[in-house]
Amino acid sequence: MKNDDEIVIDPADGLPVMKVGPWSEDKHVALSRYVDAARKARAKWPYASFIDLFSGPGRVLNRESGVISDGGVLSAWRMSERGGVPFNEMFIADADAGSVEACSARLRDAGATVQAYVGSASKTVDQVLGKLPRGLHFAFLDPFNIEHLDFEIIRKLAARPNIDLLIHFSVMDVQRNIGGDFNLASSRLDAAAPGWRSKLRLREVPKREQVGAYLEYWESLVTDLTKMQVAQSKPLFVNMNKGPLYRLIHLARHPLATKLWNTAALPAAKQQSFPGM
């Protein structure tokens, strides 16, 4: 969790929830649609896991409506079980110990087998990979900001042969920091896309296209290193004022996984489009 003023208790179970914007609901819907779409592929494997290194407490409170609902990892588990092909194990982690405890309790109460870790994702990724059996794996990376999306996390997860990733890529963070950070000794954007400042001729790129240039560079790093494909569908989520917040980006090696995401992601009518993004 971010801080104490973000903590609210769910009256249904007495455990903490995390406050989120109303757009989070669509993100969890897209995730659940993909988990459901992949059930037949998952059924062909004797073992399948779900990995969330930024799990939070498992339940969220919509700041606008006041409605409490399942977060990403709990939504994914319930959908896998409802579809008749539940994940064999749910690997969760978060920097906040209270969030891990709450999320783990909720998942276990829902019938899941859970492996839980406390710490930053750049550290817990090694712990998870050390315990991960052979099988089919799906990792959902949903950090608070781009600074936490360390490229090494993706590199390490992608080393597994049968894995696909769904990544929350913060367009808003990049848009907010790219101009001011370009000439600094270090940038909040460095961890996600190492070398971006030496590779991007930012002064030659119109301001409205700078975020798109950064994302394009990040995608080139990912695809070159992992040999994974970036799915065509990259739904853009916006705030109440239609300002861009983040994209969901799917990475996979198997064309079936990419096809399933392109079909299961938010309907085209709900996806947003912005110049240079």
Automatic annotation (TrEMBL):
InterPro entries: Tcm_partner (IPR031009). It comes from the Bacteria. NCBIfam families: tcm_partner (TIGR04474). This is Three-Cys-motif partner protein TcmP.
